[in-house]
Specification:
Distance between the termini of chain A: 13 Å
Strand content of chain A: under 5%
Oligomer: heterodimer
CATH class of chain B: Alpha Beta
CATH topology of chain B: Rossmann fold
Order of helices and strands of chain B: EHEHEHEHEHEHHE
Number of strands of chain A: 0
CATH topology of chain A: Non-ribosomal Peptide Synthetase Peptidyl Carrier Protein, Chain A
CATH class of chain A: Mainly Alpha
Structural class of chain A: mainly alpha
Radius of gyration of chain A: 14 Å
Largest sheet of chain B: 7 strands, parallel
Helix content of chain A: 55-70%
CATH architecture of chain A: Orthogonal Bundle
Number of strands of chain B: 7
Number of domains of chain A: 1
Largest interface: A-B, 7 and 7 residues
Shape of chain A: globular
Number of helices of chain B: 7
Strand order of the largest sheet of chain B: 3-2-1-4-5-6-7
Number of helices of chain A: 7
Structural class of chain B: alpha/beta
Strand content of chain B: 15-25%
Shape of chain B: globular
Helix content of chain B: 25-40%
Distance between the termini of chain B: 36 Å
Order of helices and strands of chain A: HHHHHHH
CATH architecture of chain B: 3-Layer(aba) Sandwich
């Protein structure tokens, strides 16, 4: 499955199932933690469900940007641009989204539904290469 | 009381040990499919001798990938019984590389394995984890630092997994066994040594295996996030 709409629909279904939500509440711009109130255990389940239903290896750290603070701290220490460090660590996110994330950090966990979809599309692309 | 089992498949780490074989026999009587694992050829051969129809999978705690287990995990493992434990005795104050490797395998390696197994249990919303610990976790003898530390750390991992995943149907319990007339315990027990006055405080293999079977049953699922001691009273008294 590499069609972006199919991937987004699958991820919406997964989130709706696990978080017991109506799928209409979920859009690509929805924040997974800020809006949907997903907790750590939910994130674990979401990662596992993506692995099973989308048939792909999932690295939770990358999928949920778990190490973002450390990535940025290491970049700052090394005198490296944060955008560059983020691109290297999270190749599934495009430059525009990375800039948005860097500007949005103060508001809390930045992960959005479309980031999960981008990760899944990237992994599906890898598999087809 | 008739025990019931909602799960159908049990993964037994250290399945070639005396206790693993005894438990496998009991589980098979209950209709549970058993998947044993081994580290050594002796373990693999012990499984083959007792259960010619069972193929054991090689798995060591220090492994970093669990490809060999993946087909079983994909098909669905409901129970994990952890009898895996290497031997390493030595003084903590003299610990070297071997001790570090031992702890890496028995703590970090065990965590890697538990992460893999529990992730496979989540989608089905059921899993039962039983860790076989030891009274040495509470009362180590000199020289048992690594064994004690590994057992205590593992108990903590199992307790936390039950705590974190309980709402998703995954429960856990650790059983601290005392001297068992099998495996490591049997090597310690020296019937010819009259200085060993254990006053009968020995757990039989049959008692240990039956208790593990009970802990896996539906009736015992409320025993979770906890550690139980079964040592025939060995550690209840001040002096032996």
């Amino acid at each position: 499955m590499s069609n972006p709409e199919d991937i987004t629909a699958s991820i919406t279904d997964i989130l709706a199932d696990i978080l017991d939500l109506d799928p209409v509440q979920i859009t690509p711009e929805t924040y997974v933690v800020r809006d949907l109130r997903a907790e750590s255990i939910d994130l674990l389940e979401i990662g596992v469900a993506m692995q099973h239903r989308l048939d792909m290896e999932v690295d939770d750290d990358t999928l949920f940007l778990k190490n973002m603070r450390q990535v940025l701290a290491r970049a700052a220490k090394a005198g490296k641009a944060p955008e560059e460090a983020m691109t290297a660590e999270y190749p599934h996110l495009d430059r525009a989204r990375i800039a948005e994330i860097l500007a949005d950090r103060e508001g809390g966990p930045v992960i959005k539904v479309r980031d999960l979809a981008a990760y899944a599309a990237d992994r599906a692309g890898d598999r087809e290469d | 009381m008739k025990l019931s089992f909602r799960g159908r498949t049990a993964l037994i780490l250290g399945g070639g040990s005396d206790m693993g074989l005894a438990l496998a026999a009991l589980l098979r009587e209950e209709g549970v499919t058993v998947i044993p694992t081994h580290v050594s050829d002796a373990g693999r051969e012990a499984v083959a001798r007792r259960f010619p129809d069972l193929a054991s999978t090689r798995l060591a705690l220090g492994d970093h990938d669990f490809e060999a287990l993946q087909p079983a995990l994909d098909a669905g493992v409901d129970y994990l019984v952890d009898l895996a434990q290497g031997d390493l005795e030595g003084l903590a104050a003299a610990a070297g590389d071997e001790a570090e490797s031992y702890l890496e395998a028995h703590v970090s390696g065990r965590l890697r394995l538990l992460r893999t197994v529990t992730r496979s249990m989540l989608p089905r919303r059921f899993g039962r984890l039983v860790f076989v610990s030891s009274t040495a976790a509470a009362l180590p003898a000199p020289g048992q630092a690594f064994y004690c530390a590994a057992k205590r750390a593992a108990e903590g991992l199992y307790q936390s997994l039950g705590l974190e995943l309980g709402a998703r149907g995954v429960t856990s319990v650790s059983l601290r066994l005392g001297l068992v007339d099998a495996g490591r315990g049997k090597r310690f027990l020296d019937e010819g040594d009259r200085r060993q006055n254990l006053g009968g405080k020995v757990v039989s293999l049959e008692q240990a295996a039956s208790t593990l079977l009970f802990l896996l049953s539906d009736q015992a699922l409320a025993l979770t996030c906890t550690t139980i001691t079964m040592d025939a009273g060995l550690t209840a008294q001040k002096y032996l």
